[in-house]
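Here is a complete protein record:
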Amino acid sequence: MRHTHIGVCVGLIIGVVVAGYGHALDPGEQAAYVGGGGYLIQNAALVLTMDPHRGDGSILGQLEHADVLIVGDQIAAVEVNLAAPSGVHVIDGRGMIVMPGFVDTHDHLWQCLIRGCATDGHLFQWLGRCVFPLRGSPISEDDGYAGTRLATAGLINTGVTTVVDWNHDHNVGFARGSLRALNDSHLRYAFAMVLGTSDGADVKAAKAQFIDPNPLARLQIGARTFPRRSPRSRPRSRRISEGSSFTFTSTSTSPSRRTTRSARWRPPVPSTSAGTSCSPTSST
């Protein structure tokens, strides 16, 4: 049996193009000259076309030792031994896999700013010590940009080309910074934004300025399972059943009180039954 040695499992991701807008060019449309905007990946160990009519006929449409020609934001050709058009940038794909990018369906990109915080605690201790104190803090638009931009670089480095970013509503400027970073990353994304104003003006403004002009962007509205109460209202204990969808919110305006109360909560004992999950299904 012949074995192909692949030095890097996922060494080359071209998912932004594979999953991109528009249709692939017909073979007859392949340009003889690509003015600096084209790429030819040559001799990739494995190309996953995701077309069962290509390659080995499997659901992945696998091609070995194949080439991929990209013109603009479209795939012009996927074949073996493609000739390089004049002006194209050639990428050595030996030992690499070319495949669609991964999709991250739930993330909080800004949280790379607090990576490593409260790693000795459970979920609600982490929330109380690392997340809740930021609400009402002077965390800025530049902070939002820096955290999200760093996170998007990490996603791209691991082959993720599409992400759903749940952005916590620290303040309107913070959300704006996160959106600027997402647009600058050129990732495809859905921005799940929680209403920061009662009339939704912040969401409408963000959509008009950042989402609508970007064909790679989509807007989602983040919703809390439990409505917020007035800071003066008396907190009530809640019984949280296993598998229920919830968002833990604090009624205190004091970060220190918020931290103390959340740290007292103890999570339920996880079930040992197969196929069950104790994880909340909504964003925290």
